[in-house]
Amino acid sequence: MRRREDKGSTPVIGIFVVVVAAMYMISCGGQEVSESSTDGESDASTVVEASGPRGVRVNTPQVSPGYVYFAPLLSDTTYLIDTDGQVVHTWKSNYAPSGGVYLLDNGHLIRGAREPEVPTFSGGGLGGRIQEFTWDGEVVSNFTFANEDHLLHHDVAVLPNGNILAIAWERKGVEEVRRAGRRAELTPEAGLWPDMVVEFERQSPHEARIVWEWHMWDHTIQNYDDTLDNYGDPSEHPELIDVNGELEPPTISEEELARLKTLGYVPSDTTPKDLQSDFMHTNAIAYNADLDQIVLSILKYNEVWIIDHSTTVDEAAGHTGGRWERGGDLLYRWGNPRVYGRGDGTQQRLFGQHDPRWIPQGMPGAGHLLVFNNNLNGSEGPYSAVFEFALPTDDEGLFVVPDTEAFGPETLSWSYTAPDKSSMFSSFISGAHRLANGRTMITSGAQGRFLEVTSEGVIVWDYWTPYSGDVKMPDGSRPQPTASWTYPVFRATKILPDHPALAGRDLTPLDPQPPIVLPSSSAEDSP
Predict the structure, then answer these.
(1) With contact defined as beta carbons under 8 Å apart, do 98 and 19 qualify?
(2) pLDDT in tens, 335-361
(3) 241-242 and 220-221 strand pairing
(4) Are 412 and 337 within 8 A, CB to CB?
(5) Is 246 within 8 Å of 279 (Cβ atoms)?
(6) In angstroms, rounded to a whole number, what is the distance separating the alpha carbons of residues 70 and 352?
(7) What does pTM read for this prediction?
(8) Which of helix, strand or coil describes residue 184?
């Protein structure tokens, strides 16, 4: 096949953003599939949310000691709670969050924030700002990256050296999209917003510079237009990304879109074409320092991808170089072999997934991936699950790439579904991470529910947050399109009592406890 060298440059911008959330029912809810999934446009009523009291519902003697931190999507506050559900610390921002928050070893908190107004980009995943707070709440870093051509969205990963990896959209006009071989009927007038990964090195409290970047656009293939340089057979090159590989983009009438806006499923300024421009919708990123690899969750492709971070910027734009000698091409992909021509819908395993991450060394399952699989469907109705699977590598750590078959594995190492499957269902956001004792901490994000389960699937702790928020945008809308859900949380993280960030801290429950703030009506709540 021929390689396409047409790529634009990315300016070094001194401002950084992180964004989260998503177009939760259209863009974050997955796509219509068979027995293994559910339609991403399921009504909000299918989510179990308020059938019991908010707060701790299960707290057994077997629960792991520690603390949980989280930021409700509609709130300006990040909470740290103990296993009794008591708030022991908070951090206050002037913004709603853009998704995940990260507590550093020094006690500082990295928190993405939703910029009130951003140009060009609309729909799910809007953000625009990253803030760093000290333990005492002082803002020591506060910068943005949001312009007409780029917007960071969803998640970030903090590197050991303090740099930050983040996901961004980059705008591509119709002519550039045509030169990449995108089918004309799949190309909106606004063009496309392919994803990129950028690494920021902070220069001052209000500035950062890009020191590394990876562009999906540099690694495309297509079998639509044989006059173009990136023409080829996607099934022969699974290391490349079929620019037409996702399922048919959503089509929607103005009337249907107006209803979704009224329900809060999409932001108030979303257009039908916006649903097509965001054709990948990468919603999570994680980093493995031992391997110097990055894992991404590509919602519209229903896949997880792994790429090499050891490359130079030039190598990341090409197909050779780096520790793994593949440049910026995909090292591994899993979840939906149909999008690279090596399978059909019956082999799809992921449906609107979130939060893939490696299990750290020293923990049960070390080196495996965990992922929250949002939109499954069975005889009992829609439900979610957590999957753990082993990565297929050889003795040298290189991924095993089959000649003609889909990437493995075919079987899971472990999985969790609720005993009553539909009682844990979140069509958007959510996540899971392994604890040192082998337990798994799960966030069912739409429900605002955090639970700790054993390897046998026993729930030893179950908390439904009573904390929400009432942050509004300038037009009166909610900061994220959370539909009718009151308590959504992108992701919660559990840390042990000996975590370095907690050393010497006063962790006595606050007295009084923080007030409960619920969302008021907004412009999205009425026609």
Answers:
(1) yes
(2) 999 999 999 989 999 999 999 999 999
(3) parallel
(4) no
(5) yes
(6) 22
(7) 0.89
(8) helix
